[in-house]
Amino acid sequence: MGVDVAAHLVRLGLLNTTSDYASVSSINLFVALLCTCIVLGHLLEENRWVNESITALIIGLCTGVVILLTTKGKSSHIFVFSEDLFFIYLLPPIIFNAGFQVKKKQFFRNFMTITLFGAVGTMISFFTIAIAAIAIFSRMNIGTLDVGDFLAIGAIFSATDSVCTLQVLNQDETPFLYSLVFGEGVVNDATSIVLFNALQNLDLVHIDAAVVLKFLGNFFYLFLSSTFLGVFAGLLSAYIIKKLYIGRHSTDREVALMMLMAYLSYMLAELLDLSGILTVFFCGIVMSHYTWHNVTESSRVTTKHAFATLSFIAETFLFLYVGMDALDIEKWEFASDSPGKSVGISSILLGLVLLGRAAFVFPLSFLSNLTKKAPNEKITWRQQIVIWWAGLMRGAVSIALAYNKFTRSGHTQLHGNAIMITSTITVVLFSTMVFGMMTKPLIRLLLPASSHAVSEPSSPKSLHSPLLTSMQGSDLENSAHIVRPSSLRMLLSKPTHTVHYYWRKFDDALMRPMFGGRGFVPFSPGSPTEQSVHGGR
Question: Could you tell me the superkingdom of the organism this chain comes from (predicted)?
Protein backbone atom coordinates (compact mmCIF):
# COMPACT_ATOMS: atom_id res chain seq x y z
CA MET A 1 0.00 0.00 0.00
CA GLY A 2 1.73 3.20 1.05
CA VAL A 3 1.45 6.86 0.14
CA ASP A 4 2.42 6.34 -3.52
CA VAL A 5 -0.56 4.01 -4.05
CA ALA A 6 -2.86 6.35 -2.15
CA ALA A 7 -1.77 9.30 -4.28
CA HIS A 8 -2.35 7.23 -7.42
CA LEU A 9 -5.86 6.34 -6.28
CA VAL A 10 -6.55 9.99 -5.52
CA ARG A 11 -5.61 10.91 -9.06
CA LEU A 12 -7.97 8.23 -10.34
CA GLY A 13 -10.74 9.66 -8.20
CA LEU A 14 -11.04 6.49 -6.14
CA LEU A 15 -10.30 8.20 -2.85
CA ASN A 16 -12.36 10.95 -1.33
CA THR A 17 -11.04 14.27 -0.10
CA THR A 18 -10.81 12.97 3.46
CA SER A 19 -8.34 10.27 2.41
CA ASP A 20 -6.52 12.80 0.27
CA TYR A 21 -6.18 15.09 3.27
CA ALA A 22 -4.96 12.18 5.41
CA SER A 23 -2.28 11.27 2.84
CA VAL A 24 -1.03 14.86 2.64
CA SER A 25 -1.00 15.10 6.44
CA SER A 26 0.99 11.85 6.70
CA ILE A 27 3.57 13.10 4.21
CA ASN A 28 3.90 16.42 6.05
CA LEU A 29 4.38 14.68 9.39
CA PHE A 30 6.96 12.27 8.03
CA VAL A 31 8.97 15.03 6.33
CA ALA A 32 8.89 17.03 9.56
CA LEU A 33 10.18 13.97 11.43
CA LEU A 34 12.99 13.55 8.91
CA CYS A 35 14.00 17.18 9.47
CA THR A 36 13.92 16.58 13.22
CA CYS A 37 16.18 13.54 12.85
CA ILE A 38 18.71 15.55 10.84
CA VAL A 39 18.78 18.44 13.34
CA LEU A 40 19.06 16.18 16.39
CA GLY A 41 21.66 14.04 14.64
CA HIS A 42 23.76 17.16 14.12
CA LEU A 43 23.35 18.26 17.75
CA LEU A 44 24.32 14.78 18.99
CA GLU A 45 27.29 14.44 16.61
CA GLU A 46 29.84 14.32 19.43
CA ASN A 47 27.68 12.26 21.79
CA ARG A 48 29.43 9.20 23.16
CA TRP A 49 26.41 6.89 23.06
CA VAL A 50 23.98 8.02 20.36
CA ASN A 51 24.38 8.31 16.57
CA GLU A 52 21.97 9.31 13.78
CA SER A 53 20.50 5.83 13.22
CA ILE A 54 19.72 5.42 16.91
CA THR A 55 18.28 8.95 16.98
CA ALA A 56 15.93 8.09 14.09
CA LEU A 57 14.86 4.87 15.84
CA ILE A 58 14.10 6.69 19.09
CA ILE A 59 12.13 9.41 17.29
CA GLY A 60 10.22 6.72 15.41
CA LEU A 61 9.38 4.94 18.67
CA CYS A 62 8.23 8.14 20.34
CA THR A 63 6.11 9.05 17.31
CA GLY A 64 4.60 5.56 17.33
CA VAL A 65 3.62 5.97 20.98
CA VAL A 66 1.97 9.34 20.25
CA ILE A 67 0.04 7.91 17.27
CA LEU A 68 -1.04 4.91 19.37
CA LEU A 69 -2.43 7.25 22.02
CA THR A 70 -4.20 9.53 19.54
CA THR A 71 -5.77 6.62 17.63
CA LYS A 72 -6.68 4.83 20.88
CA GLY A 73 -4.47 1.83 20.13
CA LYS A 74 -5.61 1.24 16.55
CA SER A 75 -2.37 2.16 14.76
CA SER A 76 1.22 3.18 15.49
CA HIS A 77 2.51 4.31 12.12
CA ILE A 78 1.75 6.68 9.29
CA PHE A 79 2.38 4.25 6.43
CA VAL A 80 1.68 0.57 5.99
CA PHE A 81 4.94 -1.20 5.16
CA SER A 82 5.44 -1.85 1.47
CA GLU A 83 8.20 -4.08 0.13
CA ASP A 84 8.11 -2.05 -3.08
CA LEU A 85 8.77 1.14 -1.12
CA PHE A 86 11.89 -0.43 0.36
CA PHE A 87 13.32 -2.45 -2.54
CA ILE A 88 12.38 -0.07 -5.36
CA TYR A 89 12.70 3.41 -3.87
CA LEU A 90 14.86 3.39 -0.72
CA LEU A 91 17.49 0.66 -1.12
CA PRO A 92 18.89 1.61 -4.60
CA PRO A 93 20.26 5.08 -3.63
CA ILE A 94 21.88 3.64 -0.47
CA ILE A 95 23.70 0.83 -2.28
CA PHE A 96 24.59 2.89 -5.35
CA ASN A 97 26.18 5.59 -3.22
CA ALA A 98 28.20 2.93 -1.40
CA GLY A 99 29.67 1.84 -4.74
CA PHE A 100 30.01 5.36 -6.12
CA GLN A 101 31.89 6.72 -3.09
CA VAL A 102 34.06 3.63 -2.53
CA LYS A 103 37.83 4.07 -2.72
CA LYS A 104 38.45 1.41 -5.33
CA LYS A 105 42.18 0.95 -4.77
CA GLN A 106 41.70 0.14 -1.09
CA PHE A 107 38.56 -1.91 -1.77
CA PHE A 108 40.20 -4.13 -4.40
CA ARG A 109 43.50 -4.28 -2.50
CA ASN A 110 41.56 -6.08 0.25
CA PHE A 111 39.07 -7.66 -2.15
CA MET A 112 39.91 -11.28 -1.30
CA THR A 113 39.57 -10.65 2.44
CA ILE A 114 36.36 -8.67 1.92
CA THR A 115 34.93 -11.45 -0.27
CA LEU A 116 36.03 -14.05 2.26
CA PHE A 117 34.14 -12.27 5.04
CA GLY A 118 31.22 -10.96 2.98
CA ALA A 119 30.41 -14.06 0.88
CA VAL A 120 31.95 -17.11 2.54
CA GLY A 121 31.38 -15.71 6.03
CA THR A 122 27.73 -14.95 5.28
CA MET A 123 27.25 -18.53 4.03
CA ILE A 124 28.76 -19.88 7.27
CA SER A 125 26.53 -17.59 9.33
CA PHE A 126 23.51 -18.63 7.25
CA PHE A 127 24.07 -22.35 7.81
CA THR A 128 24.83 -21.84 11.51
CA ILE A 129 21.63 -19.87 12.17
CA ALA A 130 19.43 -22.00 9.86
CA ILE A 131 20.54 -25.37 11.30
CA ALA A 132 20.17 -24.09 14.86
CA ALA A 133 16.72 -22.64 14.04
CA ILE A 134 15.57 -25.98 12.61
CA ALA A 135 16.85 -27.84 15.66
CA ILE A 136 15.37 -25.44 18.24
CA PHE A 137 12.24 -23.84 16.76
CA SER A 138 10.81 -27.05 15.28
CA ARG A 139 10.35 -28.28 18.87
CA MET A 140 8.72 -25.12 20.19
CA ASN A 141 5.37 -25.33 18.35
CA ILE A 142 5.31 -21.73 17.15
CA GLY A 143 2.86 -22.19 14.29
CA THR A 144 2.83 -23.57 10.78
CA LEU A 145 6.49 -22.85 10.04
CA ASP A 146 8.34 -25.36 7.86
CA VAL A 147 11.94 -26.02 6.86
CA GLY A 148 11.77 -23.34 4.15
CA ASP A 149 10.81 -20.75 6.77
CA PHE A 150 13.69 -21.76 9.02
CA LEU A 151 16.15 -21.54 6.12
CA ALA A 152 14.74 -18.09 5.33
CA ILE A 153 15.38 -17.12 8.97
CA GLY A 154 19.03 -18.04 8.41
CA ALA A 155 19.23 -15.67 5.42
CA ILE A 156 17.25 -12.90 7.18
CA PHE A 157 19.50 -12.82 10.25
CA SER A 158 22.71 -13.16 8.24
CA ALA A 159 22.12 -9.67 6.80
CA THR A 160 24.15 -7.24 8.93
CA ASP A 161 23.90 -3.48 9.36
CA SER A 162 27.31 -1.95 10.05
CA VAL A 163 26.14 1.69 9.83
CA CYS A 164 26.66 2.32 13.56
CA THR A 165 30.26 1.09 13.45
CA LEU A 166 31.10 2.95 10.25
CA GLN A 167 29.83 6.19 11.81
CA VAL A 168 32.36 5.70 14.62
CA LEU A 169 35.40 4.33 12.75
CA ASN A 170 37.75 6.96 11.38
CA GLN A 171 38.72 6.06 7.83
CA ASP A 172 41.89 8.17 8.03
CA GLU A 173 43.11 6.56 11.26
CA THR A 174 42.04 2.96 10.47
CA PRO A 175 41.79 2.69 6.66
CA PHE A 176 42.43 -1.07 6.56
CA LEU A 177 39.81 -1.86 9.21
CA TYR A 178 37.34 0.61 7.69
CA SER A 179 37.72 -1.03 4.27
CA LEU A 180 37.01 -4.49 5.73
CA VAL A 181 33.92 -3.39 7.69
CA PHE A 182 32.53 -1.30 4.84
CA GLY A 183 33.25 -3.81 2.06
CA GLU A 184 32.03 -6.79 4.06
CA GLY A 185 28.79 -4.95 4.89
CA VAL A 186 27.93 -4.34 1.23
CA VAL A 187 28.90 -7.85 0.05
CA ASN A 188 27.04 -9.32 3.03
CA ASP A 189 23.78 -7.55 2.14
CA ALA A 190 24.04 -8.68 -1.46
CA THR A 191 24.89 -12.27 -0.49
CA SER A 192 22.03 -12.45 2.03
CA ILE A 193 19.46 -11.23 -0.50
CA VAL A 194 20.80 -13.54 -3.23
CA LEU A 195 20.62 -16.43 -0.74
CA PHE A 196 17.07 -15.46 0.23
CA ASN A 197 15.97 -15.31 -3.41
CA ALA A 198 17.70 -18.60 -4.27
CA LEU A 199 15.87 -20.31 -1.40
CA GLN A 200 12.51 -19.33 -2.89
CA ASN A 201 13.19 -21.63 -5.86
CA LEU A 202 14.56 -24.53 -3.78
CA ASP A 203 12.67 -27.82 -3.81
CA LEU A 204 12.51 -28.65 -0.10
CA VAL A 205 10.37 -31.78 -0.55
CA HIS A 206 13.01 -33.85 -2.32
CA ILE A 207 16.38 -32.63 -1.05
CA ASP A 208 19.33 -34.53 -2.52
CA ALA A 209 22.76 -33.79 -3.99
CA ALA A 210 21.24 -32.61 -7.27
CA VAL A 211 19.00 -30.10 -5.50
CA VAL A 212 21.93 -28.76 -3.46
CA LEU A 213 24.08 -28.41 -6.59
CA LYS A 214 21.22 -26.64 -8.36
CA PHE A 215 20.90 -24.28 -5.41
CA LEU A 216 24.64 -23.46 -5.47
CA GLY A 217 24.55 -23.06 -9.26
CA ASN A 218 21.60 -20.69 -8.99
CA PHE A 219 23.42 -18.71 -6.30
CA PHE A 220 26.58 -18.22 -8.39
CA TYR A 221 24.50 -17.47 -11.50
CA LEU A 222 22.69 -14.68 -9.67
CA PHE A 223 25.96 -13.36 -8.25
CA LEU A 224 27.90 -13.27 -11.53
CA SER A 225 25.02 -12.17 -13.77
CA SER A 226 24.13 -9.30 -11.46
CA THR A 227 27.74 -8.13 -11.33
CA PHE A 228 28.07 -8.26 -15.13
CA LEU A 229 24.86 -6.27 -15.63
CA GLY A 230 26.06 -3.54 -13.25
CA VAL A 231 29.43 -3.27 -14.98
CA PHE A 232 27.75 -3.16 -18.39
CA ALA A 233 25.34 -0.39 -17.34
CA GLY A 234 28.20 1.68 -15.91
CA LEU A 235 30.34 1.28 -19.03
CA LEU A 236 27.38 2.13 -21.28
CA SER A 237 26.75 5.38 -19.40
CA ALA A 238 30.45 6.27 -19.63
CA TYR A 239 30.55 5.59 -23.37
CA ILE A 240 27.41 7.63 -24.09
CA ILE A 241 28.51 10.66 -22.08
CA LYS A 242 32.07 10.49 -23.47
CA LYS A 243 30.92 10.36 -27.09
CA LEU A 244 28.10 12.90 -26.91
CA TYR A 245 29.63 15.50 -24.53
CA ILE A 246 26.22 16.26 -23.14
CA GLY A 247 27.74 18.83 -20.79
CA ARG A 248 28.36 21.20 -23.70
CA HIS A 249 24.71 22.18 -23.64
CA SER A 250 23.37 21.13 -20.25
CA THR A 251 24.99 19.83 -17.10
CA ASP A 252 21.50 18.92 -15.86
CA ARG A 253 21.25 16.30 -18.60
CA GLU A 254 24.55 14.75 -17.54
CA VAL A 255 23.45 14.40 -13.93
CA ALA A 256 19.98 13.16 -14.94
CA LEU A 257 21.46 10.55 -17.29
CA MET A 258 23.81 9.21 -14.60
CA MET A 259 21.00 8.93 -12.07
CA LEU A 260 18.53 7.34 -14.47
CA MET A 261 20.99 4.80 -15.90
CA ALA A 262 22.02 3.75 -12.39
CA TYR A 263 18.37 3.30 -11.45
CA LEU A 264 17.69 1.54 -14.75
CA SER A 265 20.40 -1.03 -13.99
CA TYR A 266 18.74 -1.82 -10.65
CA MET A 267 15.24 -2.12 -12.10
CA LEU A 268 16.48 -4.23 -15.02
CA ALA A 269 18.14 -6.62 -12.57
CA GLU A 270 14.88 -6.92 -10.63
CA LEU A 271 13.00 -7.49 -13.90
CA LEU A 272 15.38 -10.33 -14.81
CA ASP A 273 15.14 -11.82 -11.28
CA LEU A 274 18.77 -10.95 -10.53
CA SER A 275 20.23 -9.16 -7.49
CA GLY A 276 19.58 -5.44 -7.87
CA ILE A 277 21.91 -4.70 -4.94
CA LEU A 278 24.96 -6.26 -6.61
CA THR A 279 24.05 -4.69 -9.95
CA VAL A 280 23.67 -1.13 -8.69
CA PHE A 281 26.74 -1.45 -6.41
CA PHE A 282 29.08 -2.39 -9.26
CA CYS A 283 27.36 0.14 -11.50
CA GLY A 284 28.32 2.77 -8.92
CA ILE A 285 31.95 1.60 -8.88
CA VAL A 286 32.23 1.69 -12.68
CA MET A 287 30.49 5.07 -12.92
CA SER A 288 32.88 6.61 -10.40
CA HIS A 289 35.86 5.21 -12.33
CA TYR A 290 34.81 6.20 -15.85
CA THR A 291 31.55 8.17 -16.16
CA TRP A 292 32.35 10.62 -13.36
CA HIS A 293 35.51 11.77 -15.16
CA ASN A 294 33.62 12.31 -18.43
CA VAL A 295 31.24 14.96 -17.08
CA THR A 296 31.92 18.64 -16.45
CA GLU A 297 33.42 19.88 -13.21
CA SER A 298 30.13 21.27 -11.94
CA SER A 299 28.40 17.94 -12.66
CA ARG A 300 31.08 16.10 -10.67
CA VAL A 301 30.37 18.19 -7.59
CA THR A 302 26.62 17.89 -8.11
CA THR A 303 26.56 14.11 -8.55
CA LYS A 304 28.85 13.46 -5.59
CA HIS A 305 26.67 15.41 -3.17
CA ALA A 306 23.34 14.44 -4.76
CA PHE A 307 23.99 10.71 -4.45
CA ALA A 308 25.26 11.09 -0.87
CA THR A 309 22.21 13.18 0.10
CA LEU A 310 19.71 10.73 -1.39
CA SER A 311 21.43 7.86 0.42
CA PHE A 312 21.40 9.74 3.72
CA ILE A 313 17.68 10.59 3.48
CA ALA A 314 16.79 7.00 2.54
CA GLU A 315 18.73 5.58 5.51
CA THR A 316 17.12 8.04 7.93
CA PHE A 317 13.69 7.23 6.48
CA LEU A 318 14.23 3.51 7.05
CA PHE A 319 15.33 3.78 10.68
CA LEU A 320 12.50 6.21 11.39
CA TYR A 321 9.94 3.83 9.93
CA VAL A 322 11.35 0.78 11.74
CA GLY A 323 10.96 2.68 15.02
CA MET A 324 7.29 3.40 14.31
CA ASP A 325 6.52 -0.06 12.97
CA ALA A 326 7.93 -1.68 16.11
CA LEU A 327 4.71 -0.69 17.89
CA ASP A 328 2.35 -2.04 15.23
CA ILE A 329 -0.53 -3.29 17.36
CA GLU A 330 -1.80 -5.83 14.80
CA LYS A 331 1.32 -8.00 14.85
CA TRP A 332 1.68 -7.87 18.62
CA GLU A 333 -1.98 -8.90 19.08
CA PHE A 334 -1.43 -12.12 17.11
CA ALA A 335 1.67 -12.90 19.17
CA SER A 336 0.28 -11.68 22.50
CA ASP A 337 -1.22 -15.00 23.57
CA SER A 338 2.31 -16.31 24.19
CA PRO A 339 4.46 -13.35 25.30
CA GLY A 340 6.95 -15.60 27.07
CA LYS A 341 7.49 -17.59 23.90
CA SER A 342 8.00 -14.38 21.89
CA VAL A 343 10.65 -13.16 24.33
CA GLY A 344 12.31 -16.59 24.28
CA ILE A 345 12.42 -16.70 20.47
CA SER A 346 13.84 -13.17 20.31
CA SER A 347 16.53 -14.11 22.84
CA ILE A 348 17.39 -17.30 20.93
CA LEU A 349 17.63 -15.38 17.65
CA LEU A 350 19.89 -12.79 19.27
CA GLY A 351 22.10 -15.57 20.61
CA LEU A 352 22.24 -17.19 17.16
CA VAL A 353 23.28 -13.84 15.66
CA LEU A 354 26.20 -13.67 18.12
CA LEU A 355 27.13 -17.30 17.46
CA GLY A 356 26.76 -17.09 13.67
CA ARG A 357 28.98 -14.01 13.58
CA ALA A 358 31.69 -15.56 15.75
CA ALA A 359 31.56 -18.81 13.73
CA PHE A 360 33.30 -17.15 10.80
CA VAL A 361 34.98 -13.90 11.90
CA PHE A 362 37.67 -15.45 14.07
CA PRO A 363 38.38 -18.60 11.97
CA LEU A 364 38.45 -16.66 8.69
CA SER A 365 40.63 -13.96 10.24
CA PHE A 366 43.09 -16.69 11.24
CA LEU A 367 43.10 -18.09 7.68
CA SER A 368 43.47 -14.61 6.20
CA ASN A 369 46.45 -13.84 8.43
CA LEU A 370 48.20 -17.02 7.27
CA THR A 371 48.31 -15.61 3.73
CA LYS A 372 49.64 -12.17 4.77
CA LYS A 373 53.33 -11.55 5.26
CA ALA A 374 53.35 -7.86 6.13
CA PRO A 375 52.37 -7.22 9.79
CA ASN A 376 50.30 -4.16 8.86
CA GLU A 377 48.12 -6.34 6.59
CA LYS A 378 47.24 -8.85 9.28
CA ILE A 379 44.02 -8.55 11.25
CA THR A 380 44.90 -8.06 14.91
CA TRP A 381 42.89 -9.58 17.75
CA ARG A 382 41.39 -6.18 18.62
CA GLN A 383 40.42 -5.56 15.02
CA GLN A 384 38.76 -8.98 14.88
CA ILE A 385 36.61 -8.05 17.87
CA VAL A 386 35.59 -4.79 16.15
CA ILE A 387 34.72 -6.67 12.94
CA TRP A 388 32.69 -9.18 14.95
CA TRP A 389 30.90 -6.39 16.80
CA ALA A 390 30.22 -4.40 13.62
CA GLY A 391 28.17 -7.28 12.26
CA LEU A 392 25.99 -7.81 15.32
CA MET A 393 23.54 -5.03 14.44
CA ARG A 394 20.55 -5.93 12.28
CA GLY A 395 18.67 -3.33 10.24
CA ALA A 396 16.44 -2.52 7.32
CA VAL A 397 17.45 -5.46 5.10
CA SER A 398 16.49 -7.97 7.81
CA ILE A 399 13.17 -6.17 8.34
CA ALA A 400 12.40 -6.10 4.60
CA LEU A 401 13.25 -9.79 4.08
CA ALA A 402 11.16 -10.76 7.11
CA TYR A 403 8.17 -8.83 5.76
CA ASN A 404 8.71 -10.41 2.37
CA LYS A 405 8.61 -13.91 3.86
CA PHE A 406 6.11 -13.65 6.69
CA THR A 407 3.55 -11.02 5.62
CA ARG A 408 1.31 -10.12 2.71
CA SER A 409 1.26 -6.37 1.94
CA GLY A 410 2.52 -5.64 5.44
CA HIS A 411 -0.18 -7.70 7.22
CA THR A 412 -0.26 -11.17 8.70
CA GLN A 413 -2.92 -13.21 10.47
CA LEU A 414 -0.90 -16.37 11.08
CA HIS A 415 0.37 -16.91 14.61
CA GLY A 416 3.79 -18.25 13.62
CA ASN A 417 4.38 -15.51 11.08
CA ALA A 418 3.37 -12.80 13.57
CA ILE A 419 5.82 -14.19 16.14
CA MET A 420 8.67 -14.15 13.59
CA ILE A 421 7.87 -10.57 12.55
CA THR A 422 7.71 -9.29 16.13
CA SER A 423 10.87 -11.24 17.02
CA THR A 424 12.71 -9.74 14.03
CA ILE A 425 11.64 -6.24 15.05
CA THR A 426 12.75 -6.92 18.64
CA VAL A 427 16.18 -8.16 17.53
CA VAL A 428 16.64 -5.17 15.19
CA LEU A 429 15.66 -2.67 17.89
CA PHE A 430 17.72 -4.30 20.63
CA SER A 431 20.83 -4.83 18.51
CA THR A 432 20.75 -1.36 16.96
CA MET A 433 20.03 0.57 20.14
CA VAL A 434 21.90 -1.46 22.79
CA PHE A 435 24.85 -2.68 20.69
CA GLY A 436 24.86 0.61 18.76
CA MET A 437 25.11 2.67 21.94
CA MET A 438 28.02 0.54 23.13
CA THR A 439 29.92 0.84 19.83
CA LYS A 440 31.68 4.17 20.47
CA PRO A 441 32.97 3.26 23.96
CA LEU A 442 34.04 -0.19 22.74
CA ILE A 443 36.01 1.14 19.77
CA ARG A 444 37.62 3.84 21.90
CA LEU A 445 38.65 1.11 24.32
CA LEU A 446 39.98 -1.30 21.68
CA LEU A 447 41.41 1.26 19.24
CA PRO A 448 42.72 4.28 21.16
CA ALA A 449 43.18 7.27 18.89
CA SER A 450 46.75 7.72 20.05
CA SER A 451 47.78 4.33 18.67
CA HIS A 452 46.01 4.86 15.37
CA ALA A 453 46.88 8.44 14.62
CA VAL A 454 47.56 9.37 11.04
CA SER A 455 51.17 8.67 10.23
CA GLU A 456 53.68 11.05 8.80
CA PRO A 457 53.89 11.12 4.99
CA SER A 458 57.07 9.04 5.00
CA SER A 459 55.53 6.26 7.05
CA PRO A 460 54.82 2.91 5.38
CA LYS A 461 51.22 3.24 6.61
CA SER A 462 50.70 5.91 3.95
CA LEU A 463 50.49 3.04 1.47
CA HIS A 464 47.04 2.38 2.93
CA SER A 465 44.79 5.16 1.61
CA PRO A 466 41.32 5.52 3.12
CA LEU A 467 38.45 3.65 1.51
CA LEU A 468 36.28 6.71 1.11
CA THR A 469 37.95 10.02 0.34
CA SER A 470 37.01 13.45 -0.84
CA MET A 471 38.67 12.58 -4.16
CA GLN A 472 36.93 10.29 -6.59
CA GLY A 473 38.36 7.22 -8.26
CA SER A 474 41.85 7.57 -9.59
CA ASP A 475 42.28 11.17 -8.42
CA LEU A 476 44.05 9.81 -5.36
CA GLU A 477 45.69 6.95 -7.22
CA ASN A 478 47.45 9.35 -9.57
CA SER A 479 48.33 11.86 -6.88
CA ALA A 480 51.94 12.95 -6.85
CA HIS A 481 52.02 12.70 -3.07
CA ILE A 482 51.75 8.92 -2.84
CA VAL A 483 54.85 7.68 -1.04
CA ARG A 484 56.83 4.91 -2.72
CA PRO A 485 58.52 2.10 -0.76
CA SER A 486 61.74 3.51 0.68
CA SER A 487 63.53 0.23 1.32
CA LEU A 488 64.02 -3.22 -0.16
CA ARG A 489 61.97 -4.71 2.69
CA MET A 490 59.00 -2.43 1.85
CA LEU A 491 59.35 -3.29 -1.83
CA LEU A 492 59.28 -7.01 -1.04
CA SER A 493 56.29 -6.65 1.28
CA LYS A 494 54.44 -4.63 -1.39
CA PRO A 495 55.42 -6.14 -4.76
CA THR A 496 54.62 -3.97 -7.75
CA HIS A 497 53.37 -6.81 -9.97
CA THR A 498 50.05 -7.36 -8.26
CA VAL A 499 46.56 -7.89 -9.66
CA HIS A 500 46.00 -4.15 -9.31
CA TYR A 501 49.18 -3.48 -11.32
CA TYR A 502 48.05 -5.64 -14.26
CA TRP A 503 44.55 -4.20 -14.08
CA ARG A 504 45.97 -0.68 -14.37
CA LYS A 505 47.94 -1.69 -17.46
CA PHE A 506 44.83 -3.19 -19.04
CA ASP A 507 42.74 -0.21 -17.99
CA ASP A 508 45.15 2.35 -19.45
CA ALA A 509 45.68 0.42 -22.68
CA LEU A 510 42.11 -0.53 -23.54
CA MET A 511 39.35 0.59 -21.20
CA ARG A 512 40.06 4.28 -20.65
CA PRO A 513 40.66 5.15 -24.31
CA MET A 514 37.25 3.63 -25.10
CA PHE A 515 35.16 4.62 -22.07
CA GLY A 516 36.97 7.73 -20.87
CA GLY A 517 38.21 8.43 -17.41
CA ARG A 518 41.00 10.55 -16.05
CA GLY A 519 43.67 11.37 -18.62
CA PHE A 520 41.96 9.93 -21.70
CA VAL A 521 39.19 12.41 -22.52
CA PRO A 522 40.18 14.45 -25.60
CA PHE A 523 39.82 18.21 -25.46
CA SER A 524 36.60 19.56 -26.89
CA PRO A 525 34.63 22.75 -26.16
CA GLY A 526 32.44 22.00 -23.17
CA SER A 527 34.16 18.68 -22.43
CA PRO A 528 35.52 17.82 -18.96
CA THR A 529 39.10 18.61 -20.00
CA GLU A 530 38.19 22.19 -20.83
CA GLN A 531 37.89 22.91 -17.12
CA SER A 532 41.35 21.50 -16.38
CA VAL A 533 42.94 23.43 -19.25
CA HIS A 534 41.47 26.80 -18.28
CA GLY A 535 40.99 26.22 -14.58
CA GLY A 536 44.37 27.63 -13.56
CA ARG A 537 43.88 31.01 -15.20
Answer: Eukaryota
> Which residue intervals of 169-208 are DSSP H helices?
175-200
Q: Each residue of 427-466: b (16+ CB within 10 Å) or e?
A: bbbbbbbebbbebbebbeeebeeeebeeeeeeebbbbbbb
Residue 109's H or E segment, with its range, is helix 104-109
What global pTM score does this model have?
Answer: 0.76
Can you give the length of the chain in residues? 537
d(CA 204, CA 71): 44
Cα–Cα distances (Å) from 489 to 371, 374, 460, 493, 499, in that order, read 18, 10, 11, 6, 20
Per-residue model confidence (pLDDT) at position 482: 42
Say what the pLDDT of residue 365 is.
Answer: 93
- pLDDT of res. 475: 44
Angstrom distances, CA of residue 278 to CA of 140, 191, 274, 353, 483? 37, 9, 9, 24, 33
What b/e string do you get for 145-182 counting C-beta neighbours within 10 Å, with b at 16 or more?
Answer: beeebbbbbbbbbbbbbbbbbbbbbbbebbbbbbbbbb
The string of DSSP codes covering 430-449 is HIIIIIHHHHHHHHHHHS-G
CA 503 – CA 288 distance, rounded (Å): 16
Q: Is 224 within 8 Å of 190 (Cβ atoms)?
A: no
Indicate the SS3 state at residue 464.
Answer: coil
Instruction: Report the sign of the C-alpha dihedral through residues 205, 206, 208, 211, in that order.
Output: negative
Of 360, 434, 84, 39, the closest CA to residue 442 belongs to: 434
| Alpha-carbon gap, residue 314 to 94, rounded angstroms | 7
DSSP 515: H
> Minimal CA–CA distance to 438: which of 179, 175, 164?
164
State the amino acid at position 478 in one-letter form. Answer: N
In CATH terms, is domain 83-446 a member of 2.140.10.10? no
pLDDT in tens, 89-144: 888 998 898 888 877 777 777 888 888 998 899 999 999 999 999 999 888 877 77
Summarize pLDDT for 228-256 with one digit per residue, the tens. Answer: 999 999 999 999 988 887 767 778 888 99
What local confidence, expressed as pLDDT, does residue 279 receive? 92
Domain ranges of the chain: 12-71, 83-446
Helix axes 297-325, 52-70, angle to 10 degrees: 50
Could you write out the DSSP letters of every residue in 367-413?
HHHHT--SGGGS--HHHHHHHHHHTS---HHHHHHHHHHH-BTTB--
Q: Give the dihedral sign, CA 394/400/405/407.
A: positive
Q: Is residue 397 exposed (0-12), middle (13-18) or buried (19+ Cβ within 10 Å)?
A: buried
Alpha helices in 2-82 (DSSP H): 3-11, 17-43, 52-70
Are 500 and 490 within 8 A, CB to CB?
A: no
Specify the 3-state DSSP secondary structure of 470. coil
